[in-house]
Write a structure and sequence with these properties.
Strand order of the largest sheet of chain B: 3-2-4-14-7
Radius of gyration of chain B: 23 Å
Distance between the termini of chain C: 5 Å
Largest sheet of chain B: 5 strands, mixed
Number of helices of chain C: 16
CATH class of the largest domain in chain C: Mainly Alpha
Strand content of chain B: 5-15%
CATH topology of the largest domain in chain C: MetI-like fold
Chains: A mainly alpha (337), B alpha+beta (558), C mainly alpha (314)
Order of helices and strands of chain C: HHHHHHHHHHHHHHHH
Structural class of chain B: alpha+beta
CATH superfamily of the largest domain in chain B: Periplasmic binding protein-like II
Strand content of chain C: under 5%
Number of strands of chain B: 17
Number of domains of chain C: 2
CATH class of the largest domain in chain B: Alpha Beta
Oligomer: heterotrimer
CATH topology of the largest domain in chain B: D-Maltodextrin-Binding Protein, domain 2
Radius of gyration of chain C: 25 Å
Number of strands of chain C: 0
């Protein structure tokens, strides 16, 4: 195992291996398709029993109330009509959405921010986890680990105020510049720099928290691999490239795919709070759009329509990303069977 | 908790605009629509003005304790220079029949225990015990959405006026809540003298579809104005302005970034929008009839344009605190109290709130509204709003006798300042919940703060507001004289007394305008773009709103 | 096992660096130290500001005009005020109970589901996974959720704060990925020895996944601890409020009551200066973060390198 693992240690590899050796998994092979439902039931009943409580929870508390999303096709009135009695208006809500220029602006902003953050936020927790993992002194390691995740518990109001306090027009930086006769910088109110600002805020707030799951993943990498590899003469960076990153890859790919599924959400509070300072042109994202055009004017049907659109796009992105992952030999979120 | 309770007195516009909500929230009562509710199919609706007075109680002032400083006119507030020692017993007997009712109410502050000495004392005094369910006022709207949608309401439900923007709430009100008209119309001064003491315009706000549905909680009429630091003005040797130019000059005179001091916070949309007020922009419903008889929105007026241009001038002159653009994260109450700005805009409750915070740490602190002025030095207009801040509804399923028992309780809760009932309602039981200081002013004990220091029973009735903060030197005189002066300039609105649900298209058109006007005011677009913004607003729902208001005018013969 | 032990022993020598690892270059050392110092500073400085502000008086806050960097006269007034509110102490107990019970239930359900969906080729696993994914993408609205909870009779019960959110699709999928990363030989050999799936889960998969379970448990615990929205919707009795709901009331959202009644409470508690609003807000943030600070060391303990080795070889 230790020799082949650097090449393909992902769950994909593990899964294939399991499939090829375990009697249970034989059924999944093309040749095993003939195994009857009864046989498969007999073999897998325990797994289905395990899944049952979770699925029951989803069915009752998620799927059942999610049926309420039919209001996207209704002129919904919670008091006189309800879900069954409100008049059906077909795709009117969707038509309204696709013909609203503000919707496309918000969609554009959202996708730009998602793309930007995929490049400038997503790798940060991974890098942080790697940096910390390479720290040898356990005391320093746990000290750093023990503080960097804390900003996650700050509300967005506080995060934005802290940034304001330090970088804002009346903040520490501006006051220092003024005292030295310089013109303060326009960091908090520049629409052009907004995307950088919100990403910096996100990094500061959540990178430490996001790191935790990668630390856990790092801890599952077999240390013998490093030893063998080092004895084979592989240097620090080669080991990182051939052992550490492949070990993390399944989790990275999974989180990346999940993030893509959520591509049309970049946050709400953070943008509402800073909307006035940079203007709606830069700060309007889909979630704030829904808030103003759906919730605030009490058009729940419209809000549900945008929600369905978001979910649908997310689904397409997840399926596409999963397919790409398979092409690169990854398991992704979904099995390749 | 005095401080945690601070938001209570804040102007609702501050709250709404903090969330960045609709235009109505930020610029006056309904300039661009958005306060009232409507739905897609709803093309808006409006009640009838005629016949309103027939369904509400006849106003019968209660002869209570005479004020030290009387109100000059309706809309001004009377003042009391000390807390009276001899109180009137307004309700001599225990009138309840012992029915336990359930009640849900919003809360801003720390929740009292669900059974406590304060509740017990009032239950004993009124004879109608209540089972309280207090809920976070900041998320109350979500809770209401669920409860009303599930038709799962308590016996008594308190709803703030700005919570009424729930989808088709008038349908919910029609379906779920009792019609109080038969019990309350006409002269009720014999049975419920304290309810009869609630002014007619507040009652009228509780009428839906020709039926009296709710008991109003009365607040003062002014929405908010410029507030300045009188102590700092004296230090800096400046005086309140008399026109827009003086306001700008004042800003330039006191702004000193090197010392970390700026002149103003956001004067455009917070605290009732003082800049639109001095430019006489129509604010309440936001619509006026022009000489040709056509309805015109405030946005379309020259006054609005001049106001925007002036607000931009303030921005360009760099006399605004640099946090103003991103003000959602800057607490301007704190900035103002710190003296980092010397003029802000706030509701009138904000004054009391600031004194409560500052009276101990900075006794020199003085916060006052500017004397009313207009941009051109002419006759000012000061903006007013609804005087019903909260409404109490009664479950339709409650039997008649229990509804009446509740009204009797609400009558007790409406006892005005200077009565024993009001003392119990506000401060609880002497010794347990409060003690009197040397001047006779009640102060809470720790338990009193917990039980009685947050409003619960307070919301269940309405009483005309007074100024009684005699513990702050000069406060009562200052505020009452301001009210007595400003009431002469209180604006009138042609739609007063009509419950209006604007068409959803008009409401949806509001937020883009707020955003674009902000772009102008904060230097991201030129003032000349206003014409384009108006055009977009008209096609985006503004013209639909105009047609709607023209119909309202026609239907009511205004 | 012997190899592993030897490796462990060797690794313990000299500052914990394994013998096979080359000593770090001075430049690399300095660079890493600088980077970590910068990261820590970026976090610790604001934390410091938050804590100091929560302990500052109104005068200090007025002097700085906002958040306080340099402490001048420390006062615990904000904390005293919050805990003198009466309901807070009880709310701490409620939240602790909900977090403990909820996390236990969530971990159980999530681990079962994750394992149940992690065996390649098992019956119906694809449609089931797809069903899990969908919950991720399409969410229910407030009113339907309320109706479900109400019709199950869960309104005003603690269960309403736990059961509806007991399973989270994200956590399920992440845990499943960790399960799938466990070498297949282990599971196969157990199966050959006649172990059923429940035995495999309990004896092999769970012990090997302590780090992942710790992380998922942390995610759930933090979720339960921070949750307020369901409590706001479903809980009516003040005594059943979790801590977050109580704390939120201290952070008045710049809200929102019409001004002007005579009856507004205007005074403060006799003989006690009210804590500044800003200190209260900061104190609430500190109080909310303390449990995370307390739990994290237990979570972190499971991140030790080499857990899997012993199991594989042994």
């Amino acid at each position: 195992m230790s020799t082949e693992a650097p090449e393909a240690p992902g769950p994909g590899a593990a899964g294939t291996r399991a499939a090829s050796t375990s009697p249970q998994a034989l059924g999944s092979k093309p040749s095993g398709r003939r195994v009857s439902l009864r046989q498969r039931l007999r073999r897998d009943w325990a797994l289905l029993v395990m899944v049952l409580p979770g699925m029951a929870l989803f069915a009752v508390f998620h799927y059942l109330p999610s049926l309420g999303n039919i209001i996207a096709f209704q002129d919904y009135s919670p008091y006189s009509g309800g879900f069954t009695g409100s008049p059906w208006i077909g795709l009117a809500n969707f038509r309204l959405m696709f013909t609203d220029a503000a919707f496309w602006d918000a969609l554009g902003n959202t996708l730009t921010i998602t793309g930007f953050q995929l490049i400038f936020y997503f790798p940060v927790p991974i890098a942080l986890a790697l940096a910390l993992n390479s720290v040898i002194s356990p005391r320093i390691r746990s000290l750093v680990q023990g503080v960097v995740y804390l900003p996650h518990f700050f509300s967005w109001v506080l995060v934005v105020s802290l940034f304001q306090q330090i970088l804002g027009g009346a903040g520490l930086l501006a006051q220092t510049l003024r005292q030295h006769g310089m013109q303060p910088l326009d960091i908090m109110t520049s629409p052009d720099a907004f995307i950088v600002l919100v990403t910096a805020q996100t990094v500061w707030k959540d990178a430490g928290w996001g790191m935790i799951v990668f630390l856990a993943a790092l801890s599952t990498i077999d240390p013998n691999l490093y030893e063998v590899s080092a004895t084979d003469g592989a240097g620090r960076w080669r080991r990182l490239w051939h052992i550490t990153l492949p070990g993390l890859r399944p989790v990275i790919v999974l989180l990346l795919i999940l993030r893509l599924g959520d591509a049309l959400s970049v946050g709400f509070e953070q943008f509402i709070l800073q909307r006035q300072s940079v203007g709606a042109g830069a700060a309007e994202v889909l979630d704030t759009y829904v808030y103003y055009k759906g919730f605030l004017v009490q058009d729940f049907g419209y809000g549900a329509a945008v929600g369905l659109f978001k979910g649908f796009v997310g689904l397409l992105l997840i399926l596409a990303a999963n397919r790409v992952a398979h092409r690169f030999g990854e398991q992704g979120i979904y099995q390749k069977s | 908790m005095t401080t945690s309770f601070s938001g209570r007195s804040t102007d609702r516009r501050t709250f709404l605009s903090l969330l960045g909500t609709g235009a109505a929230a930020t610029v006056g009562g309904g300039l661009l629509g958005g306060c009232s509710n409507a739905t897609k199919s709803s093309q808006g609706s409006a009640g009838q003005k005629s016949g309103l007075s027939a369904v509400v109680p006849k106003y019968q002032p209660y002869a209570g304790l005479p004020p030290d400083i009387p109100a000059a006119a309706d809309g001004a507030l009377p003042g009391y220079l000390s807390y009276p020692r001899d109180l009137i017993k307004a309700v001599p007997t225990v009138r309840g029949k012992g029915s336990q009712l359930t009640v849900m109410s919003p809360l801003w502050g720390s929740p009292p225990a669900s059974a406590n000495a304060y509740y017990a004392a009032i239950a004993a005094r009124t004879g109608t015990p209540l089972k309280w369910n207090v809920q976070d006022g900041n998320t109350y709207r979500d809770k209401l959405t669920a409860l009303l949608g599930a038709a799962d309401v308590p016996d008594i439900l308190v709803i703030a006026s700005w919570h009424l923007g729930i989808p088709r709430i008038s349908e919910a009100i029609a379906n779920l809540f009792a019609d109080l008209t038969p019990m309350l119309k006409g002269d009720i001064s014999g049975r419920w003298p304290l309810l009869a003491n609630i002014p007619t315009d507040a009652w009228q706000a509780g009428v839906w579809d020709g039926q009296l549905k709710a008991i109003p909680w009365v607040r003062q009429a002014f929405t908010g104005y410029f507030m300045y630091r009188k102590d700092l003005f004296q230090e800096l040797g400046v005086t309140p302005p008399k026109n827009a130019d003086e306001l700008l000059a004042l800003g330039k005179a006191v702004t000193d970034p090197a010392k970390g001091r700026w002149a103003f916070s956001d004067l455009w949309q917070k605290g009732g929008g003082p800049i639109p007020q001095i430019f006489r922009v129509p604010l309440r419903h936001g619509w006026v009839k022009d000489p040709s008889g056509k309805m015109v929105n405030g946005l379309e007026t020259d006054e609005f344009e001049a106001g925007v241009a002036f607000a931009r001038k303030l921005f360009d002159a760099k006399v605004l605190h640099p946090g103003v653009g991103g003000d959602a994260s800057v607490d301007f109450k704190q900035v103002f109290q710190s003296g980092k700005i010397v003029v802000t805009s706030d509701g009138f409750g904000g004054i009391r709130e600031a004194y409560a915070v500052q009276s101990r740490s900075n006794p020199a602190f003085r916060m006052e509204p500017f004397p009313p002025f207009a941009h051109d030095g002419g006759t000012p207009v000061v903006s007013g709003g609804d005087t019903a801040g909260l409404f109490t509804f009664v479950n339709k399923k409650l039997p008649q006798d229990k509804i009446e028992e509740y009204l009797t309780l609400a009558d007790w809760c409406s006892a005005p300042f200077g009565t024993e009932e009001n003392l119990l309602l506000t401060y609880g039981v002497e010794g347990t919940h409060f003690r009197r200081d040397a001047n006779g002013t009640p102060t809470y004990t720790a338990q009193g703060q917990k039980d009685a220091g947050v409003p619960t029973y307070d919301f269940l009735g309405g009483r005309p507001p007074v100024v009684s903060e005699s513990q702050y030197p000069g406060y009562v005189q200052m505020l009452t004289s301001w009210y007595n002066n400003a009431v002469k300039y209180l604006d009138k609105d042609m739609f007063d007394g009509i419950r209006i649900e604007e068409p959803v298209a008009l409401q949806k058109a509001g937020q883009p305008v707020v955003d674009k006007v902000n772009d102008i005011i904060f230097g991201r677009r030129p003032v000349s773009d206003l014409e384009q913004i108006r055009k977009e607003w008209r096609s985006g729902g503004g013209d639909e709103g105009r047609a709607f208001y023209e119909k309202v005018v026609k239907d009511n013969n205004l | 096992m012997t190899v592993t032990t030897a490796a462990m022993v060797r690794r313990k020598r000299r500052s914990g660096r394994p013998i096979w690892e080359e000593p770090p270059t001075p430049a690399g050392r300095v660079g890493k130290a600088l980077l970590l110092a910068l990261v820590v500073l970026a976090v610790v400085f604001p934390l410091w500001v938050v804590v100091i502000t929560s302990l500052s008086s109104q005068q200090t806050i007025d002097a700085t005009g906002g958040l306080v960097v340099v402490p001048q006269g420390i006062t615990p007034a904000a904390y005293l005020q919050i805990f003198s509110g009466g309901v807070v102490t009880r709310a701490v107990l409620v939240s602790t109970f909900i977090t403990a019970a909820g996390t236990a239930l969530s971990l159980a359900v999530t681990a079962l589901s994750a394992y149940g969906l992690s065996r390649p080729g098992s019956l119906w696993h694809r449609p089931l996974l797809f069903a899990v994914l969908l919950t991720f993408l399409f969410g229910p609205g407030i009113i339907p959720s309320y109706l479900v909870v109400k019709s199950l009779g869960l309104i005003d019960t603690y269960a309403s704060l736990i059961i509806p959110t007991a399973l989270n699709a994200f956590n399920l999928v992440v845990l499943r990925a960790f399960f799938m990363n466990i070498p297949g030989e282990l599971i196969d050999s157990a199966r050959i020895d006649g172990a059923g799936d429940f035995t495999i889960l309990g004896r092999i998969v769970l012990p090997l996944s302590k780090a992942a379970l710790a992380v998922i448990g942390l995610f759930y615990a933090v979720g339960y601890w921070n949750a307020f929205f369901n409590a706001m919707l479903y809980i009516n009795t003040t005594e059943k409020w979790p801590l977050q709901l109580v704390l939120r009331l201290y952070v008045v959202n710049g809200a929102a009551l019409p001004s002007g009644g005579s009856s507004g409470p205007q005074s403060s508690i006799a003989g006690m200066a009210p804590a500044p609003t800003l200190s209260l807000k900061m104190a609430i943030i500190v109080i909310a973060a303390v449990p995370a600070l307390l739990i994290y060391p237990f979570v972190q303990r499971h991140f030790t390198k080499g857990v899997i080795v012993g199991a594989v070889k042994g």
